[in-house]
Write a structure and sequence with these properties.
Blueprint: E1 41-42, E2 48-50, E3 53-54, H1 55-62, E4 66-70, H2 71-85, E5 89-94, H3 101-109, E6 113-116, H4 119-127, E7 135-137, H5 144-153, E8 157-160, H6 163-175, E9 180-187, E10 191-194, E11 196-198, E12 209-210, H7 215-225, E13 229-235, E14 239-242, H8 246-266, E15 272-274, H9 292-310, E16 316-319, H10 323-326, E17 330-342, E18 346-351, H11 360-364, E19 371-372, E20 381-387, E21 396-404, E22 412-416, E23 437-441, E24 444-449, H12 454-460
Helix pairs in contact: 2-9, 5-6, 7-8, 8-9
Bound molecules: pyridoxal-5'-phosphate.
Pyridoxal-5'-phosphate binds at residues 94, 96-97, 115, 138, 237, 240, 276-279, 320-324, 420.
Length: 463
């Protein structure tokens, strides 16, 4: 985060954290291409269009709030990742960021693989025709039923997360007469968040098996002895919304070190390493994400160098971007309901959604930006907090931002970069009806996940 004096002047010093990124953009009508999906632009009247369609038309046809997903941008990002990593590596889209049958079909067509971490995600992937060998199954507590289904349909790999699971998967595979391809997820003692990482974080977390204390080496020892398992590699995932490649560097070095130990002890060179996901995106203009080709080059160089110095053949690398693919491809379209100016503080702008469609601000203190999209305005900037309609004062969508002072009820505003972990984490709090996901492409819009209805809610309530 930038640490310069607040450009809005001392009047805002008491309401915004010192050095906060938010400053009135020199032009509130400008759309920063870093945070908006690729086909977003303003038309001659100043209204925002995406995929060639004006937001007012989308609001009229599909209602608000709605997630508007730019399909050609999604596909372009898939291709960029696939091209960057090339034929000697694999890109797995992390389905938990956002998954639907349409998304699975786009991934399939664009040549990506898919990570799932529950029976529900697996069912969605299978239903939409993702080739089963391109699916990887994750999770720290997969149920026996989930493992049985994953093994019997023949998923490409299961990522083992605990000592119990090593035995459980081996047993299930054997009883089904199969040999399951598996990786072991290790915790490398690296914790990466945004611009920093900690290389000596202790392994106080629920995922994976620690490299420290010989735990991971012991897990490998056990997995190699079990007939139901074909151990193909080591997996490491170090965090989320990461910009600094140094965390991956430490992680890769430690994983390669384990591969060398495995070779020395067992005489086998495991053919795969997975470095996980977690690559950051721009939520605000302050964020500077890396392009897939830079990431591919950095990771490839690190692994090649470490393997050379350990005398190992370079293994097949895989990565698991979720947010970095789908995050920037969607924005949430809201209608402004009420506006409350609080003298000397800020103006509260209430929208027709909130923490039920975007929990990230409340959950992670996430930062977002917001723009007036149904028109442009030359009015002065006003400091706003965009809040939802839920019965909770923490129901905040955008903590601090500037919108034009002539904002009025009925205006459409949009929060960009909500493609990841918004619809997938949406809830029915206050019996909210979860918004639809509308895919736009080349002048056409279609619902890929429809809006919930009161009938949907009442169907589950058996009375
Ligand atoms: C969450 C997760 C990802 C994806 O993380 P992003 O931040 O969306 O890229 C990838 N791999 C694993 C194992 C994860 O748990």
């Amino acid at each position: 985060m930038s640490r310069s004096a607040h450009p809005a002047g001392p009047r805002h010093a008491d309401v915004l954290p010192e050095g906060h990124w938010t400053a009135p953009a020199t032009d509130l009508n400008a759309l920063d291409e870093k945070v908006w999906s690729r086909t977003v632009t303003r038309d001659a009247d100043g209204a925002l269009t995406v995929g060639g369609i004006e937001v007012a038309r989308l609001a009229e046809e599909f209602g608000t709030p709605a997630y508007i997903l730019d399909e050609s941008d999604f596909r372009a990002r898939c291709r960029a990742w696939a091209d960057a990593f090339g034929a000697d590596a694999d890109v797995f889209y992390a389905g938990k960021a956002f998954l639907s049958r349409a998304v699975v079909r786009w991934l399939t067509e664009e040549g990506l693989n898919l990570d799932v971490c529950s029976g529900g995600e697996l069912a969605t992937a299978l239903d939409a025709g993702m080739p089963v060998e391109r699916i990887a199954f994750h999770g720290n507590n997969k149920t026996v039923a989930e493992i049985e289904r994953a093994v019997s349909v023949g998923v490409g790999r299961i990522v083992l997360d605990s000592f119990q699971e090593i035995v459980r998967v081996a047993h299930i595979a054997q009883s089904l007469g199969k040999r399951q391809r598996v990786q072991i997820r290790v915790t490398v003692g690296v914790e990466a968040h945004t611009h920093e990482f900690i290389a000596t974080a202790h392994e106080d977390q629920k995922f994976g098996i620690a490299l420290a204390g010989g735990q991971a080496a012991e897990a490998v020892r056990r997995a190699l002895t079990l007939d139901g398992l074909e151990l193909v590699g080591i997996h490491s995932h170090i965090g989320s919304q990461i910009f600094d490649m140094a965390g991956f560097e430490v992680s890769a070095r430690r994983v390669v070190q384990l591969l060398a130990e495995i070779r020395d002890e067992h005489g086998v060179e495991l053919p795969e390493i997975d470095l996980g996901g977690g690559l950051g995106i721009a939520y605000t203009s302050e964020d500077d994400p890396r392009e897939p080709h830079e990431i591919a080059k950095a990771l490839g160089d690190i692994v090649t160098r470490e393997c050379e110095s350990a005398g190992l053949a370079t293994p097949r690398i895989s990565v698991e971007p979720g947010r970095a693919i789908v995050g920037p491809t969607a924005f949430t379209l809201y209608e402004v309901g009420t506006i409350k100016p609080l003298e000397g503080l800020r103006t509260y702008v209430s929208v027709d959604g909130g923490m039920s469609d975007n929990i990230r601000t409340a959950l992670y203190d996430a930062e977002y930006s917001v723009s007036l999209v149904s028109r442009t305005s030359d009015a002065e900037p006003m400091l706003v907090r965009v809040v939802g309609k839920h019965c909770e004062s923490g129901d905040i969508v955008v903590k601090d931002a500037f919108l034009p002072a002539d904002l009025a009820p009925g205006d459409l505003i949009a929060v960009p970069a909500t493609g990841a972990y918004c619809r997938s984490m949406a809830s029915n709090y206050n019996h909210a009806l979860r918004p639809p996901v509308v895919a736009v492409r080349d002048g056409r819009a279609r619902v890929i996940v429809r809006r919930e209805t009161e009938e949907d809610l009442l169907r589950l309530d058996v009375g």
